[in-house]
């Protein structure tokens, strides 16, 4: 469960021992250490250590069984009728009146997503693993809740990389309510801007089914605002008090993030916004270039489940700097995070919009059409080359080396020492990734949550140790219950849209020259002036000129293998006219693995700034981050590490 190079430190924060009554001489020593959970299993002299990195854990929650429904026999309760409910912030007096007084247990659910490789030839993937620690050490519920809450708070401190309160390890914590209400999270919510028409048009549905459960498990509250028209997100960011949130999540394609970035630079406080509010991206669109670039930079198995990896980036919220490019055209100033295109790639991107209903396959279909009707573009390309920068050919593919041993799997267990376990006779089921359960419906109220009898799995264990002053009972089991893990966190999140007080056609205004853009001052000459003498100038006909500053411009398009998120380099790809169609076909096919840099006739040049000046006799498309801009002269320069993105 933990990579072999991820060793749990010897600094043990919390520790407990659990016995399994169904197996003689078998017990677990569960330790919570600085960077992970460690489970030491001993059975008849044989030892086995199973570990989970703290970096794979996204959240944890305390639960308790509610009172049994009327009519159930106390000695033989119907397990499928018992409800589980969050007890983290509820007053103790209310708990004693609401929940089952016959069960003094507290259940600590720990949610993790581990890297796993099932077969030698298959790519690794992250799979969801839910551990359920059942605290029934004491004969009083309040004492069990205190113990579980200490584990929970320490885990949350470790997840958020903050200092653990000194008195939390002390078993005689002064106030149980203070412990229950202790929080390590910022009380601000995340701002989610969702494009319901991105990609094949299922953005809202995908967010509710695939992203909400992960945000809920990680206790990340959010506000969702659904975009209503083009440039809605841009106007929202420009006009609203966005400091009420602690991050901006864009759900859709690269287009909605483009709106958000440029909306920020229409604010006078743009610098403060970029500093305080990191940007997150969850792919529901066709291209999804930045989401793939972030995962590629962090060596995450993006292709097996893009939405899961991107959602984990949001909940882990590791801040990573990213380059921003200032773009100037005759009519406007823009800010870009992905790429600028002129030629065949830009044509494919824009003209394939009519096939948006088929998703990402539209790029392949239109590539064939554009190749059969190949165009040439006449103009001048000038650039400022990077100093002491060399192209390093790297045929790196997306086969990740991160593996997990087959024997490093925690055995899911249960205890038959309690009535609630007596009817849990189903076999062990493999824990499932979130993307495999997205057809489940999210309940309207956490009170509707229930734990079915066939959802507690594993070995039978019970605690048989004790210490002075307290009688110990059974205390631990693990479960892979889909419903109990999926629905076990309440949510203070909300779906809403900004009040539509003004005309809904506002975002369709294309009069961009009236926009006032802020941002860092440019170092380039005016677009109408001559380029400096230290620039390189190429004049003639071109098939494609494409500037990329991230590794990918699409999920399956590794256009700049050497690009980093914040390296201060623009990778300029130039293909001059005169090459055969077979070379262009080879180039388009090679974009999937980055080997196009080896093709003769394809020049890849690292630059700091560039200018494209199309001839007046030439027509076509120019794109910035996949969005079409006015056809004509355009220049750009890089500003390293200007913004921050959320990453795994």
UniProtKB/TrEMBL annotation:
BP terms from Gene Ontology: regulation of apoptotic process; sphingosine biosynthetic process
SUPFAM superfamilies registered for this protein in UniProt: NAD kinase/diacylglycerol kinase-like
Keywords: ATP-binding, Kinase, Membrane, Nucleotide-binding, Transferase
Broadest EC class assigned to this enzyme: transferase
Gene Ontology CC annotation, any one: membrane
Record region (Disordered): 487-521
EC numbers on record: 2.7.1.91
Localization: Endomembrane system
All residue ranges annotated as the DAGKc domain in the record: 185-331
Domain of life of the native organism: Eukaryota
One of the record's GO molecular function terms: ATP binding
Biased composition (Polar residues): 487-514
Name the record gives this protein: sphingosine kinase
Source organism: Aphidius gifuensis (Parasitoid wasp)
């Amino acid at each position: 469960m933990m990579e072999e190079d991820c060793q749990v430190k010897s600094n043990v924060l919390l520790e407990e021992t659990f016995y399994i009554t169904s197996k003689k001489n078998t017990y677990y020593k569960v330790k919570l250490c600085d960077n992970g959970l460690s489970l030491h299993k001993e059975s008849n002299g044989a030892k086995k250590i199973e570990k989970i990195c703290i970096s794979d854990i996204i959240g944890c929650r305390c639960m308790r069984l509610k009172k049994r429904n009327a009519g159930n026999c106390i000695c033989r309760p119907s397990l499928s009728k018992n409800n589980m409910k969050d007890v983290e912030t509820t007053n103790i007096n209310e708990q004693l009146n609401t929940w089952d007084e016959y069960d003094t247990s507290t259940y600590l659910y720990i949610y993790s997503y581990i890297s796993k490789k099932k077969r030698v030839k298959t790519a690794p993937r992250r799979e969801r693993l839910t551990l359920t620690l059942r605290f029934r050490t004491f004969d009083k519920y309040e004492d069990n809740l205190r113990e579980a809450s200490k584990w929970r708070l320490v885990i949350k401190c470790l997840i958020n990389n903050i200092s653990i309160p000194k008195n939390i390890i002390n078993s005689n914590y002064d106030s149980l309510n203070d412990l229950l209400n202790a929080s390590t999270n910022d009380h601000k919510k995340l701002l989610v801007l969702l494009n319901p028409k991105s990609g094949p048009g299922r953005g809202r549905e995908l967010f509710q089914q695939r992203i909400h459960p992960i945000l809920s498990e990680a206790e990340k509250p959010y506000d969702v605002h659904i975009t209503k028209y083009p440039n809605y997100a841009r106007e929202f960011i420009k006009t609203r008090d966005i400091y009420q949130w602690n991050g901006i999540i864009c759900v859709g394609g690269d287009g909605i993030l483009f709106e958000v970035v440029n909306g920020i630079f229409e604010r006078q406080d743009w610098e403060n916004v970029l500093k305080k509010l990191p940007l997150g991206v969850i792919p529901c669109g066709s291209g999804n270039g930045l989401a793939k670039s972030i995962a590629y930079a962090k060596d995450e198995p993006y292709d097996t489940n893009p939405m899961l990896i991107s959602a984990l980036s949001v909940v882990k919220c590791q801040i990573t700097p990213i380059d921003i490019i200032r773009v100037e055209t005759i009519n406007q100033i823009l800010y870009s995070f992905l790429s600028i295109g002129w030629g065949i790639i830009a044509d494919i991107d824009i003209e394939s919009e009519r096939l948006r209903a088929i998703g990402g396959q539209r790029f392949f279909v239109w590539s064939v059409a554009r190749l059969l009707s190949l165009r040439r573009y006449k103009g001048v390309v000038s650039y400022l080359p990077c100093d002491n920068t060399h192209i390093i050919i790297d045929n790196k593919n997306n086969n990740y080396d991160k593996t997990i041993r087959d024997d490093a799997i925690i055995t899911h267990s249960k205890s038959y020492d309690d009535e609630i376990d007596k009817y849990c006779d189903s076999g062990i089921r493999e824990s499932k990734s979130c993307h495999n359960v997205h057809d489940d419906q999210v309940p309207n109220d956490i009170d509707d949550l229930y734990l079915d009898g066939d959802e507690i799995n594993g070995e039978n264990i019970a605690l048989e140790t004790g210490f002075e002053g307290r009688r110990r009972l059974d205390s631990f089991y693990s479960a892979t219950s889909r419903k109990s893990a999926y629905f076990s966190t309440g949510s203070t999140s909300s779906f809403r849209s900004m009040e539509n007080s003004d005309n809904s056609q506002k975002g369709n205004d294309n009069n961009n020259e009236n926009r006032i853009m802020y941002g860092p001052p440019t170092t380039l000459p005016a677009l109408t002036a001559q380029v400096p003498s230290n620039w390189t100038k190429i004049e003639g006909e071109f098939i494609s000129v494409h500037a990329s500053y991230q590794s990918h411009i699409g999920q399956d398009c590794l256009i700049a293998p050497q690009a980093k998120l914040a390296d201060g380099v623009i990778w300029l790809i130039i293909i001059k006219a005169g090459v055969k169609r077979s070379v262009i076909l080879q180039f388009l096919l090679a974009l999937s693995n980055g080997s196009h840099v080896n093709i003769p006739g394809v020049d890849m040049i690292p630059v700091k700034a560039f200018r494209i000046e199309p001839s007046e006799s030439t027509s076509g498309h120019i794109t910035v981050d996949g969005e079409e801009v006015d056809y004509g002269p355009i220049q750009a320069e890089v500003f390293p590490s200007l913004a921050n993105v959320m990453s795994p």
